[in-house]
Amino acid sequence: LNRLLDPELESSVSLFVGSYILQLILHLPSHLSPHIPELIAAIVRRMQTSDIAGLKSSLVVIIARLVHLSAPNVDQFINLLLAIPAQGYGSSLAYIMSEWSQLQGEIQGAYQIKVTTTALALLISTRHPELSRIEVNGHLVKTSAGITTRSKARVTPDNWTKIPLPSKIFALLADTLAEIQEQVGDDADNIDEEDSDWEEVQNGDATPQDIMYSASVPSNANPSVEHLNAMAKVFDEDEDDSYDDDLAKNDSLNEVKLLDFLTNTFVNLWDSDRPLFEYLCQGLTNPQRVAVQKVLRK
């Protein structure tokens, strides 16, 4: 594994290492467990030296599967990521989540989307205090008027807003929920946004800890066409090609119903930490908020 994840190698050499690691997780978890810290460190080094989004995405899927492997002790997995250094970042957790939050909308494959989405739900459900101390990219800010040429793009780096990690995860989950509802045609009961049961929280009532979770700017990252096509496949449970990775068909996570999983995540967070939930909702777009309202009203 260390050789395949060697950061000195060409990225193309490591393109299929994700499938190999996934098999170790699925079939030899007890043998892999003692080596997870070394594996994570190697994954981080490989990701930091690669410009290939496909390779990074495949390694994000591995991290997501390790989140599931750690359940119900996801807090301990977060602590492990905090203890592993990453060049240029405070920890491996900060680096991995900065990449993951950017790549989630580009991840392809019904299995991969299911694994990563449910892992994000597990992470935010811990309400681990360190998550709120990490800031990630929110949405792209247009810094100049006119057409952006290739030469201008090279000399002018992208400028992103920064939002707390829980706010980003919450928005990503709401995005997925909205996509699922659109796929299954859950549009019959249109909800008037003004007729919301959510309590209005005044700024003066907020504690510093609550404010730390809030986000004033929503994520505007649009999922790719490939990502949307893969989302559609999540519901084709009876088709032979429902999952493009045959090696993962025996994974028990394939049995997870994504809509039910997300519904439970939002409902449990609403029930267990109402102030946090309401502040996270402030960073949602209207379509995201409506999607969440639908599952809360069921």
SSE string, helices as H and strands as E: HHHHHHHEHEHHHHHH
Gyration radius from CA atoms, angstroms: 19 Å
Number of helices, where a helix is a run of at least 4 consecutive DSSP H or I residues: 14
Strand content: under 5%
What structural category do the secondary elements indicate? Answer: mainly alpha
**Low-pLDDT segments, ≥5 res:** 186-221, 237-244
Q: Percentage of helical residues?
A: 40-55%
Q: Give the overall silhouette.
A: globular
Strand order in the largest sheet? 1-2
Distance between the termini: 46 Å
Overall pLDDT metric: 81
GO cellular component, one term: cytosol
Organism: Aegilops tauschii subsp. strangulata (Goatgrass)
Protein name: Importin N-terminal domain-containing protein
Describe this structure as you would to a colleague.
One of its GO terms (cellular component) is nuclear envelope. This is Importin N-terminal domain-containing protein. InterPro entries: ARM-like, ARM-type_fold. It comes from Aegilops tauschii subsp. strangulata. The chain is mainly alpha-helical. It has two domains: 1-106; 161-298, no CATH class. 53% of the residues lie in helices and 4% in strands. It contains 14 helices and two strands. It has helices at residues 17-27, 29-32, 36-48, 53-70, 74-83, 92-103, 110-126, 150-155, 165-183, 208-213, 225-233, 258-272, 274-281, 286-296; strands at residues 135-141, 159-164. Strands 1-2 form a two-stranded antiparallel ribbon. Helix 3 runs antiparallel to helix 4 and helix 7 (110-126) crosses helix 9 (165-183). The chain starts with 16 loop residues before the first helix and ends with a helix. The model is unreliable at 186-221 and 237-244 (pLDDT under 50).
